[in-house]
Amino acid sequence: MGKVRSTYRCGECAAEFPQWTGKCGSCGAWNTVVEERVRETASAAFNANANASAAAVAIPIAEGDGEGRRPRPVGIGELDRVLGGGLVAGSVTLLGGEPGIGKSTLLLQALSSLARGSSVRSGSGGARCLLASAEESAQQVRLRAARLGALEPRLFLLAETELPAILASAAAVAPDVLVVDSIQTVHDPELASAPGSVAQVRECAHRLVRAAKDRGTATVLVGHVTKDGALAGPRVLEHVVDTVLSFEGERHHALRLLRAVKHRFGPTSELGLFEMTDDGLADVPDPGGLFLSDRQAGAPGSVVVPTLEGHRPLLVELQALVAKSPLAMPRRSAQGLDSGRLAMISAVLEERVGVSLVGADVYALAVGGVRVVEPGADLALALALVSSVTGEALPADMVACGEVGLCGELRQVGQTGRRLAEAARLGFRRAVVPASAPEPPPGIAVLRAATLVEAVAVAGLRIGAKPVGFPRAVPA
Ligand code: TYD
Ligand code: MG
Fold first, then answer.
1. Distances (CA, A) of 458 to 39, 390, 396, 475
2. Which residues contact 265 (CB under 8 A, 6 or more apart)?
3. Over the stretch 417-475, which tens digit does the pLDDT of each residue have?
4. pLDDT tens digits, one per residue of 120-143
5. Closest CA to 177 of 87, 83, 78, 81
6. Fewer Cβ neighbours under 10 Å: the N or C end of the chain?
7. Burial of 272 (0-12, 13-18, 19+ CB in 10 A)
8. How many whole angstroms separate alpha carbon 283 and alpha carbon 76?
9. How many other CB atoms sit within 10 Å of the CB of residue 344?
10. pLDDT in tens, 185-236
């Protein structure tokens, strides 16, 4: 037991200060600096060990073996896609997401699949797995596991919040894969600071990372995320782990999106799609049907956009409703879309196309609980607004994709070919695109437009068609 000393640390960026301050001098956040009591020997010994191992010898880069770095497939298609094949031995993955989004469910399913050893991994008898639950009791986890059909003999369960007990149990079980749910609720009683404090989270994560590297255990840590999307606690967690996965979705929709924010062993551009069902999370390998199944083709105000999530094309229906407002300050509502882009496109429609939204409530929506924030959706949003104003629908087999500039011009967006190929696969035959867009893939024809005014025309919308609407005359 060593001397206890106090330091002051920022909860956001983990910068250390000799005394308390209201504003963090490093990241500028207010009221984030808290006192941290550190027992000197424990901490110093740990820090020394973390960096120096007795057998540390530098070797030529081409020598070391790449074996063991081959990912072990989890057996859940969408998770393996995001992980770039599976979990790598000795790697540490942080799975972040808001409470209730399904992190514990996903990992329980992943562990049971790993323990079962699915047919994909021919000949493998399944991995030894340990789930350390620091949030739910063993009974709660077992009940859920029974419901999900996850009661596998090779899956071990430990309900424990103290880190030394978790590490001891990991040493005894010697799992191939260890899950700690969650890193914020695990603590080490040796450390003087309170459970959940920055110091605890950081030190516990460091020790788990070290154990993962020493034993070659693929380790997954669950991390809670605050409302603004940041991982609660120190950002340093993101630096000590190999992979950061983010699990997102709208609480009221069944759709869940899994992304790799950082990945040392694979791409960060992949997107995994899941649906939350009564039997846990189900893969959505072909999202085409998911977003468009309830679409009312031929309804005014609806336009389909081939958007891109990472490398994955997704066809999403954008809807707009422009309605006469009884309010002095009309409403502007954007759901699943960027409200700034909606405001900009409304202004461009007003000034460059002659469609006035003044005095109207404007609602815009990306259907299905997905968030579409890329500029490639501008054109579809603009056409949806015009279509709602004129009361005319776009043809059912038409999509639109392109960025709208402030002068009303259309700009090409990345990977147009890939987007249009997916649209063609799902039965769309025409696409409104910027004039500069490349030749389309087979099966779909392009209608080119240099400006938003031209796009409105090629989409077959006639401004002024609806007598009760808000259109002004189109400027010559
Ligand atoms: P959970 O995995 O506990 O979320 P997290 O660990 O991210 O906090 O999942 C919570 C929600 O998922 C819960 O509100 C109920 C829902 N759920 C289902 O709809 N179906 C299921 O089969 C399971 C296990 C959970
Ligand atoms: Mg949980």
1. 72, 15, 14, 17
2. 69, 71, 83, 84, 88, 91, 242, 243
3. 999 999 999 999 999 999 999 999 999 999 999 999 999 999 999 886 554 344 444 44
4. 444 457 899 999 999 999 999 999
5. 87
6. C
7. buried
8. 7
9. 18
10. 999 998 888 887 788 888 899 999 999 999 999 999 999 887 666 666 656 7
Count CB-CB contacts under 10 A for residue 97.
Answer: 23
Q: Among 106, 276, 281, name the best residue to mutate to test ligand 1's pocket (greatest count of ligand atoms within 8 A of Cβ).
A: 276
Of the candidates 390, 388, 419, the one whose C-alpha atom is nearest the C-alpha of residue 403 is: 419
Probe target for ligand 1 pocket from 98, 105, 106, with the most ligand atoms within 8 Å of CB = 105
Q: Which residues line ligand 1 (CB under 6 A)?
A: 97, 99-105, 144, 276, 278-280
* 3-class secondary-structure state, position 59: coil
279 CA: nearest ligand 1 atom: 22
**Residues facing residue 431 across a β-bridge:** 399, 446
Length of the chain: 476
What is the pTM for the complete model shown? 0.78
Q: What is the pLDDT of residue 2?
A: 58
For the record, the structure tokens of 416 come out as 């147009």
Burial (CB count within 10 angstroms: exposed 0-12, middle 13-18, buried 19+), residue 361: middle
CB 218 within 8 A of CB 72: yes
Let me know if 75 is exposed, middle or buried by CB neighbors in 10 A (0-12, 13-18, 19+): buried
What whole-number distance in Å separates Cα of residue 94 and Cα of residue 179? 10
Rounded-to-integer distance, Cα 414 and Cα 305, Å: 14
Structure token digits, residue 229: 């999307």
Q: How far apart are CA 292 and CA 313, in angstroms?
A: 14
pLDDT of residue 44: 45
Residue keyed to tokens 């209201």: 22
Following DSSP, what letter does each residue of 38-82 receive, concatenated? Answer: EEHHHHHHHHHHHH--TT-----TTTS--TT-SPBP-S-HHHHHH
* Three-state secondary-structure class, residue 42: helix
* DSSP at 3: -
What does the DSSP 8-state code read for residue 472?
-
